[in-house]
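Worked example 2:
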Amino acid sequence: MLSSILTTSLLFGTAFAAQPSSPTVVCVAGQCLEGFTNTTIGATLSASGAATSLLLLPGQYTSTTNPSLLHDLLTSSSASISASPGFEANTSLPLNLALQPGVAVYPQANYSGQATFAQLPSTPSNSTSKISPGSLAVASNVWVALSGSSSDRVIFWDSVPDVSQLPSGASGLSQLLDIQSSACSPPCAGAGVCSASGTCTCPPGFNGTSCETCSPGFFGPTCQACPADCATCDDGMTGTGRCLEPVIKNAPSTCNCLNGVCGSDGSCTCNAGWTTGTNGTACAKCDTGFFLNSDGNCEVCGLGCTQCADGSGDCISCKSGFTQNANDRTECIATQAITSTGTVCPDGSFSNGTSCQPCSPLCQTCSGPTSNDCIICGAGKYSLNGNCVGTDGNGVCDGSVLVADNNKHNCDACPSKCTTCKYPSFNVASTIDQVQCTGCLPGFVLSQGKCVESCPSGTFLDPKDNVTCTACDSSCSSCAGSSTFCLTCANNQLASSGRCVASCPSNTFSSSGQCITCHPDCATCSGSSFNQCSSCPADRPVLTNGRCLPTCSKSQYFDKTSSSCQSCDASCSSCSGAGPSNCLACSSSNNVLQGGACVSAKCSGGSSVISGLGICLSDLVVVPPASGTSSGSPLPSVTGIDTPIAPSSNTVVKRPLQWWEILLMALGCAFIFVLFLMCWRRRMRKRRVAATANFAAAKNLDHSKSWRYRLVRFGERLFGHRKGQRWMMPKETEDIRLAKLRAAEEARYGPAFEKLGVAEDARHDRDMARLRESSLRHDREMEKLIGSYEYTRAGSSRAPSPLPSLRDYESDRHSHKASSKGSERGRTTNDLLAEESLYSQVTGQPRRAPEPRQPVRNAADLLPSRFSNTTYSSWLTPDPPAQPTTHLAPTPAQEYARSVTQLAQADAPPPRGAYWLQATDTGGSRNPFLR
């Protein structure tokens, strides 16, 4: 026990001796402690007249932050603040004291000592810096890559109060490798730097949202600029930088020139044979004495011709003393020289009037004594501007850039895009189509004696003059820069860095016969993009969706065995390996890091673990216990250090609404609105029902309250009833109604009829004879009956009876027609029944009701229905009489019958379905749900 007390005393004495001689007040939002500390993280807050200054740890402070000592200094008008390295702060409230994007390295544990701050870089850097950390403060949304004794990269996402408490795999940290922000999504490529705002900052030459490509005009993994004398080069991240198109100086187009060379003063010097065109473009048409041939070149006109036509070269005008050759319209021939005596001068002479004189030795034929009078120059001489000149060994006329034309004996122009030309081996047999260019206009290159816009396949532009196209080596299908630097190879080989190989080396992939370098983020790849990686380099080891990333997410670590990201232990916020003993920070705010494991914090003095620092406030401030032998004043010695702010009645603390409060308010408003709509709809329905009832009562629409009706009404209340969807049962015709009644009777008496069927078949034959006899007797009786009501029809004005007969309707119609003609011959007893009824004879009006049903004695006589065929309505009126009749005035009996009929029709019950009919004007409905 003594040894333990001695050990405790020695430890406390050592710790106390290391602390400053004067106490310091250290505060976080809500709590302050006075004691001895070496902590320097945060900012120092002071004010004139205050008892002491305060060390504010990182956090947010407002005008209502406790305790009262902290509140008084925060709200003091004379408050001043001094921030430690990496922090920026001012006295305006609310005060958010936070580390700037980067990392602060403290030489001692518990964030003690003079800090060194490394901010988030704006450009990528491959350089490393040596550090000797005792503790680390890492800004939010920033990760730091460090390396230690094991040379492995260790990624830190959180602050570390004591480096000695890290797991063994993260010990001995000595180098700062990289600092990156985690705010960018997707992450930046290797060349980009993620800023605190969440965007990738690209260095010069790089482009893309993730800085994954080179800008136009830049090439290679570092995106360096193309050569200065190149207009375009093989650019891009996988480009070689070879010049594809050199910069053209004094191009003809810069001075509105077509077939000439622009000078430094902007003037254009045309090639021989060319002049300014009619549209003002310099060197756009052939000069006088030249014509435009089918190759687009200006060619000299034929002998003796001063002007010739483009295309054909036919002579338009001849020199003086020349006439157009009838056999060859492209040339003119000289008139033959004749003396005054009529002598014809031979070739080589001319006439001076009286005699023939010899020509100049330079002339083959002439018109005078001097060389300027030559018509055709002598051997080895060619006409140039009226003079005969010689040539050099290349066939170029002396004193010009024109070449000799042995056919025309003139000096001819070079091809249009050539500035100079020559014959490869000139002699008297050389023809003009053997001429080869030796110089080209700017923008054209020389290939096999012709000026072309680009070198053909299998050749390259010689960098010595940037004009001549030179053939590639036989091993190359195409080359650049030199004949042996192959771009594509023959014999199915692959071009890699200018050499022909059988297979592509590492860090390249095959494409179109070339080995193309992978993106700088990849170790091996299947394509040139940064998301086509197959394996990753050491500084970007994480392969995810084809991309190589420098680190896993915060709650994961990189497993070298499986080359994949694995989840940390649940107790770790970030870690360097598997299990609970490899934590770099703790996920719980009640735990602290000890030996790589997260253990429960044992904070004293009522303090807690400081958010973002991972350490108790009581561990940063040493408060010595009260002792009776101590000469110093007891702590705390400053008033207000543990006193809360006095509440003020005039102070209303406003706080922002939480998301769930806003959601509840929105849901409440929506519920009230829906409830209001439901009540309004219910009220409108009640008003509509009342209006409908009033309308039905006013119109005497009495409808049945059957279960079908109640079911329909319930459906309307349940699903709503639209005005546009109302239906009405169609009014049944008499035939349909009778058909339904017959069907119902057949269904009702069907079984009974089947039982009676056999007996009736037996009786049928017996009764037929009796029926015939009864029918004859019945006819005689009916003749007597009808005879008593028969009146003579002579001069009668009454219409025939519309009543149907006992037979079918067609026979009744025939009987009516017969009766209307006054013919009574051939009429049977049944025909007499079709006469007008007694009612019609008395009132003079046709019946408007069905005939009385005939009495039936037994059910067997009902087949197929118990309703007789006489049940026809009175609308089946027969055809009107052929001859119009004169109607007499109605009798009093007829007037009475008409009035009774109208009252009966008015009091008739409405047909089924009439209550569905819409009134023409009911006042409408104000229900908004029916509109």
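The first helix runs from residue 2 to 18. The two ends are 94 Å apart (CA to CA).
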